[in-house]
Amino acid sequence: MSEPILKLEGVCTNIAQYHILQGVDLAVSAGGVTMLLGRNGVGKTTTLRTIMGLWRAHAGRVLFDGQDIAVLSTPAIARTGIGFVPEDMGIFSDLTVEENMVLAAASGPLDPARLDWIFAAFPPIRTFWKQPAGNLSGGQKQMLSIARAMAEERRLYLIDEPTKGLAPAIVATMAGALRDLKAQGASILMVEQNFGVAKLLGDTCAVMDDGRTIWAGEMRELAEDAALQERLMGLNMENA
Amino acid sequence: MSAPDHTPTMARTGIWQRLEPHLPLILVPLLAGLGLVAIPSPTSWLTLTVSGLAMGMMIFIMASGMTLVFGLMDVINFGHGAFISVGAFVGISILLALGSMTGTPSLWLNLAAVLLAILGAALATAALGLAFEKVIVEPVYGAHLKQILVTMGGLIIVEQLILVLWGPDEIFFTRPEALKGAVTFAGAAIEKYRLVAVGFGLALFLAMRWILRSTKIGLIVRAGVENGEMVEALGYRLRLVFVGVFVAGSALAGLGGVMWGLYQEVITAHMGADLMVLIFIVVIIGGLGSVEGCFIGALLVGLMQNYIAFLQPKLALISNIGLMVAILMWRPQGMMPVVKAK
Lengths: 240, 342
Known about the structure:
The complex is a heterodimer.
Chain A: E1 4-15, E2 18-29, E3 33-37, H1 44-51, E4 57-64, E5 67-68, H2 74-79, E6 82-85, H3 97-104, H4 112-121, H5 123-127, H6 138-149, E7 156-160, H7 168-183, E8 187-191, H8 195-201, E9 204-209, E10 212-218, H9 219-223, H10 226-233
Parallel strand pairs in A: 3-8, 3-9, 6-7, 7-8
Antiparallel strand pairs in A: 1-2, 1-4, 4-5, 9-10
Helix pairs in contact in A: 3-6
Chain B: H1 15-19, H2 27-38, H3 42-73, H4 80-97, H5 99-102, H6 107-137, H7 144-166, E1 171-172, E2 182-185, E3 188-191, H8 192-214, H9 216-233, H10 238-264, E4 266-267, H11 271-286, H12 291-311, H13 316-330
Antiparallel strand pairs in B: 1-4, 2-3
């Protein structure tokens, strides 16, 4: 396995009086997909938001390519080359699909070749290019959210539950696009509740509970061990 | 990569569903039409309509910055009125100093003097806005009650400074020669200055709309009003954008202050604070963060005030409150809200 591009060391995050993250240790390998798993409410989304600087870590280090980004502002973190797909998709409903994409290309105009690649991965983006993004269906909004992160080449993608609440056909489209992104050598840290998708895409995984990482290892190892799954996440996922 | 196995479609919506979001656009012609029915003389109606539109345009200029600041950073700035007063005093002082240009009947010289006054006022209030944002607003981000208290305090301090610098008396003056008097159109007397105000306001609205719709900075502002956190996660420094919008909004308020002063031919230190009631009504009925809503709201307020003052003078004071109640009963978040979740 290659060197980690992102490393979290003992990261703690408080939201108001709540201690949400209580020492998260995590490594995302360069060019690999790391799945962040765990039950609801254990701190997976907070971990991604802390990496992006949307919540401030009050202890620990967030090392991106060796640089501690925990001290940077959110825009500065984004400009280091991190793309973020939030759980609520963060779509600008009053802007058109085109305007959403133009905005996502922060460093300049959209690259036509990259746009063609995005259109091939997500045909609805082309179909509804001039439509207000607020008119899209839930699945189409999720596609736009990921397409927006793909609008420019990023060194790391943080993706929060991309298949949540989607129809199986759209989950397949989403998984195909993410597999394509992975094939291009992208580093991805992804929160995912759909264990089937996690098995399909993940190289490594980390499992969280109660604001901490309680296990980290190869995705294959977890996928093949039903007892380990049950012990770590309290669910038997062998049929997932 | 495998092709997607679903066909994207977008549900066809009915005509009513497609038209409904745009209904506020017909309110101004509708109100003007109702005015035509209610006012017995068409010439009086025309005079009142131009007067209402001119008043609306000036209120729009003053309110547009506030709606963006409100929508973009969730900041309630009661000190906005201070920029109106300062703009009026700086602008009118420049105009009085340019007496040689305003005293001649040359339209171009008069307009040049007005433009210089407007430019001076906008620059002064932009600088004041920058200081106001840094000293008064920045420490209270996210705390509405504190925002109300400290910005009200800022307004009082600026009003007192105006009294110190320009004295306690109201300043009366007359408009430049070429902008005095009226032109007759279809039998109706229409004040020249009101026509200038309508043209200037409309040009400013179109320019703002172009910036917001066709430039990247406009895109960032519109997106920031809707979801500032996501704009930052895309790599844009929203804080700088906000400061820019605050400064531009302050400059517009100052510019509006000069125009309002020229409209009333008198300026006072508390004129901005007095106008804040109308500005809040316009921002609320337009929908937070919406420049288009603010524009329509301002025109409705201007027309309503003029029509009711003519038809039922005693009701003029409450006519705009009634308008706000009616619109909020129809659309509780305003006509074209951009910020819905706050």
